[in-house]
Design a protein that fits this description.
Order of helices and strands: HEEEEEEEEEHE
Helix content: 25-40%
Number of strands: 10
Structural class: alpha+beta
Strand content: 35-45%
Radius of gyration: 43 Å
Number of helices: 2
Strand order of the largest sheet: 1-7-8-9-2-10
Length: about 210
């Protein structure tokens, strides 16, 4: 009877060991599956992060390109409207430029047409049909006007009355030299004031 008991015990023990081994195998399989899933999740996360980073980069580049286009458009669409006004405004700000007018050529500054013909130390100016003779160092006032500088058609950059003083500096190489003082009602950046001055007169700040 003892032998049979021993065999049964051995069978039980064997069964238990087999079950333990089976359990361990299952656990190992489960662990492996979990590990695989975790790795897959991590990979997906990294892929998503990469994709997100790529999208972020694309959006960033798009915003920069858009900003550059807007700046260029703003620069290219700057326009000046000048209207005549009744003088009398206080114009406390002054910007001065050295300029030279091609002899006899009509130059437009705002709504004012100016031409100049020099004779040595004097010049005859024609401002909107009114002629005047100036000696070197003499100044002529040009009537007050109103300037509105806009960009993109709707954004106002400058809105001010302005008045020009021309001081004759002499003649050289068939050009009449004047210092131009532009008096304005509000402080205006020189870049915007330069928009009032045509390129033909080679205006340089002084």
């Amino acid at each position: 009877g003892n032998d049979e008991k021993g065999r049964e015990l051995a069978r039980e023990t064997g069964k238990r060991e087999e079950q333990d081994a089976q359990r361990q195998r299952e656990m190992a399989t489960e662990k492996g599956r979990k590990q695989g899933l975790d790795e897959e999740r991590n990979r997906e996360k990294q892929d998503k992060q990469k994709a997100g980073w790529g999208t972020g980069m694309k959006i960033g580049v798009f915003i920069i390109v858009l900003a550059i286009i807007v700046i260029i458009a703003a620069f290219l669409t700057v326009s000046v409207q000048v209207t005549n006004v009744s003088p009398g405004d206080v114009l406390p700000y002054t910007s001065s430029y050295g300029t030279s007018f091609p002899e006899g050529q009509t130059i437009q500054i705002g709504n004012t047409q100016i031409s100049a013909i020099s004779y040595g130390n004097s010049v005859t100016t024609d401002v909107n049909g009114n002629q005047q003779q100036l000696q070197v160092g003499q100044t002529q006032d040009v009537s007050e006007q109103h300037a509105r500088i806009t960009t993109l058609g709707v954004i106002t950059l400058m809105n001010t009355n302005f008045q020009i003083d021309l001081t004759y500096k002499g003649e050289r190489d068939n050009r009449a030299y004047f210092d131009i003082a532009i008096n304005t009602g509000s402080q205006v950046p020189s870049e915007l004031i330069r928009l009032l001055l045509p390129s033909e007169i080679d205006a340089t700040p002084i």
